[in-house]
Amino acid sequence: MSGCATNLTPAPTAESQAPNHDYLIGAGDSVNVIVWRNPEVSMVVSVRPDGKITTPLVEDVVAIGKTSTELARDIEKALAKFIQQPVVTVIVTAFSGPYSEQIRVIGQAAKPQALAYRKGMSLMDVVIAVGGITEFASGNKANIIRTVDGKQQTLNVRLNDLIKDGDISANVPVRPGDVLVIPQSFF
Known about the structure:
Helix content is about 15%, strand content about 25%. It is α+β, with helices and mostly antiparallel strands.
């Protein structure tokens, strides 16, 4: 029965947690663009599905995949044609993040969805955000699918131990781009 064998990796540990992580702007985020001493060109805008934003005097600036500081510098460059030495601050006010940075939860979660990654996020944070697991879930057979250096890994996680038994050792760190798969129990 070697064809049925799966290549599962043990649950991730705190040491495997993502390194320092700066938030990257994604489609659907809202950003507050503040131009110092120029309130007429300051405004809150949403990042469009194509990853760009438009503000007064600045059309179609790519925002997706940039930090708020990087976006502010890009807007300053564009505004320099119209305003002498503009000083721009960008504040992200609603978070989705780029798709590659989101945590996706599929299967037997109460509310399967994609979540914006937050630094230090753990499996428990993800389970709380999706409202827990259904009564039909096989929680201890759940997996995290993670891509590391272009290679896909499947990591065992123990949701029943974490949720029902309170076993904090089952609370593992998650990384940007992780997919949590919660299978259905067959009995």
